[in-house]
Every structure is written in structure tokens, then in C-alpha cells.
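Input/output pair, single chain:
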Amino acid sequence: MKTKIKNAIIAAALIISVSACNEDETKFLIPKGEENEVQIENSIYTHQTYYDLSTNSVIVSVDVNEWDFSVETTGSMQSIKLNPAKGYRVFKTTSTNITDEIILPEVPEWNFDDPSYDPSKMAFYGWKDNEVFVIGKKMGSPNPTMPSIGVYAKVSFLKTSDGVKMQWMFEGETDIHHCTLSVSGENHPFTWFSFEAEGAANIQPPSPNDYDLIFSSYTGEIFDGTQSFIFDLHGTLTNRAGNVRSYRYNPGDATDEEYIEIFKNLTASDVESSKFKIDANIIGYNWKTFSRITMSYEIDKSNMYFATDGDGNIFKIRFTNYYNGDGEKGYISFTYALL
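Output:
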């Protein structure tokens, strides 16, 4: 009798296992050591693509215009992030009344989210209830290193038991718009807000546990000697909220063909765990350079990265192209493997 019961339990377990595989096969890790060739189908100039390395899959690819802010709607409800592809700027005022007239300084101190996603370097860092911020948008400018910023709206936030209440007024208008972004669960701690939708965006972000890389445009600071310039950058951000860490591996001087072999032969024994950083912009944009001779982006053949996800899986990554078959830019291709 005990044997029959045991066999029945095993059979039931197998049925459940097969059923689970059919329902969600993406939960299985890719084979170790096997190189995966990937081309992201949407351009990072028009979309943000969230990618999971452990399952070799796109979790979601969203039009950059679908959302404006990512607001933490669980726990401390303190984190507010700008859509990195929208080029927004933020000016912190001393007002707590959304209807107050705000007169900006002649040279406003505009802030943006540092692409490292270090919480202390975010535009809304330390925000307080009802504190008014001015949202600026980049305007056309003949000098890309000195973009003109125009006022777009005023916005304030308030933490409540129901979620985060928002108020905003568009520049030149007197109407006060408002919404409440409802409390969310721990698996989905952020809610995307959209000015156009006047509340929660029509599409919402994946769980921080579900992806590792974001292919997107974003704002960043580039240093040239003692000077720095703010640019629109286009590249790869790692998922800091999901505890993804990375570092660039230095293969030394070699020919283009040798770099391919060096990358192919990298194993877990080449990983230096002490070099991993939580900085979301470690991979970034500079695995490519712009050639003024060909007037196109060229891949730095020596680019190689190690990344570890929130589950401790380690991957090697190498970018191989920035154009699709029609010669259109922004279509990222890369090779990677689980170590």
C-alpha cells in the first residue's frame, strides 16, 4: 500500500511538473557556456526594452512615450524616477502650494536622474509631501552640449494610506490635475505615471525580479578634461532595483579576430568578484564610438562585460552591432553566455 501511494505521489508530481513547464517554460535557465546571439527588435531611440539574461527573453518593450515618472507605491514610497528617454529636468522650489507662481532664477539649477541610479543622485531625492517641483523639457538648440530647457509643468507628491497622490499644472494653464497612484504589491513596487493618461500609464513596469538589462536612451554627463557636458546617451542600463551588478573586463591589446576568441574562452575563473559594482551605468553607452569619417557608430571590438543577477548567476556579455539589416541605428546586437 505504501509503495502504491508513493508511486501515485511521484506520478502526480510529474504531472504537476509537466504542467508547470507548459505554463511557463521561461523560468528555466539557459544552458551554461552556450553563447546566445541576440538582436533587440526595437530601436532604443523609440523604445525601452527590458531583457532577462537567465531566460534569454525580452520581458517587455515599451514605447518611450508611454510613461513619464516611475513612482514607488509600496514600502517607503520615497523613490521617484524620471523616464530616462524623455530628457526631463527637475527644479526644486521652496513652495508647497501647486498654485503658487514660480519665478525661476536666470540660470536654474536643473537636475536629472544620474544614470548610476544611486538614490542620492536622483532628481527627486529627499522629496517631501506637497513640495513643488518644476518639470523642464529639453527644447531645440543648435548646440547639443547646451540644450535649452523650457518649463513644462509643476508637480507635487503626497504619501497617503491609499498610495501616492499627485498634483500637476501644465505651463500656461490654470487647471489643477490630480490622481492617486494606488498602493502596489512587493513584487511590483513601482507604478508608471503618464501625463497623457492623467494617472497610471496604460502599461506598467515589470517586476524588478524579472529583468536584468534595459536598452534605452538616457541623460548622462560626459567629462572632457576639466569640463563636463550633459548629453542624450543611448545604451544599456543594468537593473539596480534587481541587484544586478557588473564590470568591464579588460582583455588587453589584441586584433579584432583575437577579441572574439578571448571572449569565447572567458570562463567563471576569469571573474573577479570584487570588481562587481551596483552602478546601473557600468555598461552604458561607450562600447561604441561615433566615427566622423564614416558618420556612423562603430563597435569597440574589445568591449567585454561580466554581470551577475539578483540570483547570483554570472554572465559574460559582448556587444556586436548597433544597426539592423537596413542600416538603421539603435538596434542593439550582443553575444552573451551563462558561466
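The chain is about 10% helix and 40% strand. Residues 26-63+209-338 form one domain.
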